[in-house]
Amino acid sequence: MINPVPKAELHLHIEGTLEPELALSLAARNGLALPYASADELRAAYEFADLRSFLNLYYRLMEVLRTEDDFADLADAYLERAAAQGVRHAEIFFDPQAHTGRGVPLEAVLGGLGRALTGAAGRHGVTTRLILCFLRDEPVSSALATFEAARPWFGTLITGVGLDSAEVGHPPAAFRAVYDLARDAGLHLVAHAGEEGPPEYVTEALDVLGVQRIDHGIRSMEDPALVARLVREQVPLTVCPLSNVRLRCVERLADHPLPAMLEAGLLVTVNSDDPSYFGGYAGDNFDAVRRELGLGEAELRRLAANSFRASFLPQEDKDAYL
Ligand code: ADE
Ligand code: ZN
Asked: How far is the CA of 195 from the centre of ligand 2 (A)?
C-alpha cells in the first residue's frame, strides 16, 4: 500500500483489532491459558458461518484483556496500523458490557483506551472519537446501567453511543429509552442495522432511536423506498466490505452491493469493522473494493471524502480534508 488515500475510519470495534500475536502475549502477561498453541493456530480458527459464530470467538478471545495497560496496548497497536493505512481520523467503538460482565472495571477499560486515544494525534497523526456500544442481545436494563456508569467520561472521552452484537431478533426499538438519555446528554447516536437484520431495523433505528448514522445498512438495498429516503436525507452508511464477506452477509466480494449503493447516491463509507478477524484494516478494504469491484480513482476519492463528511469532526476540520 504505497501512499494510501487519507481517510476516516468510522466503523471499528477496538476489541476486533486484537491480533493473534497480541492475544497470546496478553494471555501470557495475565497468566491465562488459551486453547491455541500459536498465532497461526489461532488464525486458523477465524472461519465463520455467520455473525453469531464470529461473536462467539470475539467474546471468548477478549478474556485476555484484563488491565488498563492491556486496553492501552490494544488501542495503541490499532492506531499505529491505522495510520500506516492512511487513516487520519478514527471513530472507535468499544463494548463495555463485554468487559464489566466478566469483572473488568470500567475504569480499567476507559483508563487504557483514554491513554492511547489521548496520545494518538501526537504519536500517530490520528485524531479520535470514542463511541460506547450497547450489546443488543443483553437486557435494556444492562444498557441503562452501563450508560449511567459511563457518565463521568461523557463529552470528554466518550462522545457517542452505538448498538451492536447479534442483530436478528434484537430490533433497535427496545433501546429507545437509553438513546433518549444519550441524546439529552449531548452524545452522538449511531446503531448497527441491516447487516444480517432486515431493512425494517434500519427504519426503526432512524425513527425510534433517532440515529445520525447507520452501521452496515447493506440490507437497505432490498427496500427501494428506504434507499430513496437514505439518499434524500444523506444518512451515512458505514459499510464494511471484507466483514460482509467473512460473515457471509455477501457470498463473494464481487457480489457486494457497494457499487450499486454509490450509483444510487447513498452516502456510503468503507470501513474495517473487526480487522484482525476479517482480513484487513481500512486501507486493505479500500484495496479490496478497488481490485474486486473495479472501483476507479474517482470513486475511491468519493469514498474517502464521504468518510470525512460522515464523521463527527467539526465542520472546519472536515473542510480541511475535503
Ligand atoms: N460486534 C463486533 N463486530 C460486530 C458486527 N460486525 N456486527 C455486530 N456486532 C459486532
Ligand atoms: Zn460492527
From this structure: 9
Position 2 pLDDT exceeds 80: no
Q: pLDDT by residue (tens digit) across 120-149?
A: 999 999 999 999 999 999 999 999 999 999
Q: 152 alpha carbon to ligand 2 midpoint, in Å?
A: 25
What is the model's pLDDT at position 149? 98
Asked whether the ipTM of the predicted complex exceeds the cut of 0.95, the reply is yes
- Binding site annotation covers 124? no
Cα 12 to averaged position of ligand 2 atoms, centre (Å): 6
Question: In ligand 1, which atom is closest to the CA atom of 15?
Answer: 2
Q: Which residue, judged by its Cα, is nearest atom 6 of ligand 1?
A: 273
Active site residue 195: yes
Can you name the residues that pair with 158 across neighbouring β-strands? 130, 154
Query: Average pLDDT for residues 99-106, to the nearest whole number?
Result: 98
pTM of the model: 0.98
Domains, the chain, with CATH or none: 7-311 (3.20.20.140)
